[in-house]
Every structure is written in structure tokens, then in C-alpha cells.
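Q: Could you fold this chain for me?
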Amino acid sequence: MKKKIVFALLLLALGAGALIWTQNRKRAVGSGPVQLYGNVDIREVNLGFRVSGRIIEVLRDEGDAAEAGEVLARLDVAPYERALAEAKAQMESLGARVRLVEAGYRPEEIAQARAVLREREVTLTNAERTFRRQQELLATRAVSEQDRDDAEARAREAQARLASAQEQLRLLEAGFRAEEIEQARAEWARARAAVARAELQLEDTVLRAPSAGVVLTRAQEPGAVVQAGATVLTLSLREPVWVRAYIREPDLGKIHPGMAVDIYTDSRPDKPYHGQIGYISPRAEFTPKTVETTELRTSLVYRLRVVVENPDEGLRQGMPVTVKLRNTQSP
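A: Sure. Below is the predicted structure, expressed as C-alpha cells.
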């Protein structure tokens, strides 16, 4: 009986010791240096033309460096130069139309309309005189009623033609209507917009690097006819360079955006890169399998982004790295 009691007490003591050891270990782990694991994340850009056409040259190959604004490829510009010339000609034509309607009719046209008006005034005067004479002769039966009626009709016709000439002169002197002027101006503005679009399309036949980087892939060759937006080159940007890392929930309170960190790679363990925490995800997730730590791979963690301050070509896309917080490292 005493042996059983002693054995039970021994088991109880061992269990208590194991519990205390586990708790102490957890506290030691939680209070130790925060060490994060992640991978280098370098942004890539698929470059293509905003217009379609035939490629005439590709100036960079895979592995070549490119500076911001540097020409990487060109399209055949002949179709776009013709389109621009046509748009400019249309713009000039409509511009001349605007100047015409704004200036009104030519003085020569107005002078001609006045001459026609004077001619028809004379014609009306003569027709009315003839009609009055025929009316007097009809009273003495010197002419027939038909002659008198013909003279009256000619007088009325001359009066109508005079009224038409007067109206035509008023129209010429008043110039074009405000609606016609506004329409001409609107068509001219549309033509100017067409020229600007044609100029932009001509500029888009040149593919330039949006920022400094290294060409990863060359997808097209000279002679290929590509549609707008088709990838011609893929560029890996030099900056920004980030590290995508993950942190456990118990360590989440030890970090904050802007905190300085050191970034270690396997190729240069004694010469870390420097950076700072730039973003912490508000949502928990399972760690990707690329983070090769047995403890983290099955745990819920929070993703964070570390901005590398001194990147160089030693950092490659997807490279595994270790991130250590400077203010939590042991002396």
C-alpha cells in the first residue's frame, strides 16, 4: 500500500514538474527575440503597347538592365503617321469653316445682293407703270382685259421678287446663325481631339521602361503583329523590394509599422539588409508552405510586409529570408 502511495506521489511530482517546465519554456519563447521567416517579393511588370501593330525592333533581351524611360521596343509607325496627317488635314478644314462662319459673308456677296435688289426695284417700278397704263386704256377699250390682267400679274411677280431680294440681303448682312457658328466650333473641337488622339497613338508605338529594372522574359520578336496590351517584355523592378513574412498572434503586439528590422539571407548571413515593417495584415491566415518552419506551417499567422531599404542584386524573387527585429535581439 505504501509503495502505491509513493508511486502515485512520484507520478504527481513528475507531472507537476513537466507542467512547470512547459510553462517556463513558453514564457521563455514568448519573451525571446522575435524572428520571422518569409520570402523576397519583387514586383514584375508585363510591358506591352497600347496600340496594335507590327513590331520592327526589340532593343532588350532577357537579363538586360533597363533604366526608367529607356526605349525597349518599337512598332511600325507608318499607319499612325498617315492617320495623324489625315486628322490634321481635317482639323485645318474645319478650322477654316469656323473662321468663315465667324467672319460672315464676303462684302462682294453683300454688294451683289444689293445690286440684285436695285434691279428688282426698277423692274417693279416699270411693271407697276405698265399696269396703270393698261388699266387706263381698258377704260377706253383700247386694250383687252387679258392685257390688263397680264400687266397686273407681272407687277405682282416683280413685287414678290423684290421682297425675295430684300430678304436675301438681310440674311447676308446678318451673317450666319449662332447655332451654325456653335456647330462649326464643336466640329473643330472634335477634329482637334482627333489630332491629339492620333498623336498619342503615334507616341504609343514606342515602348519605354516605366522604371529601372531587369528584363525577365522576351515574349515577342521583330516582325510579329501584336494586339494592344499583348505582353512584349516582362520587367522585374529594382525598387521597391519587399519581404513577405508572417508572425504568430502571441508576437503580434511586439511589432508595429515603421519598426526597424534586419534581413538575413543564406548567401550573406553576416551582412544583413536593413528595412522596416511597412504593413501588417488585419486578417489571420494559414502560413504558405514556402515558409519552412514546422511550427508556423500549421498555425494561423498574420502576414506583414517589410520594405528593404538597401536592396541590391543579391535579393532575388522568392528567395527565403529571415527577419529579426532590432529592438528585441539579445545583446
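A (continued): The chain has three domains: 32-42+239-328, 46-78+204-234, 83-200.
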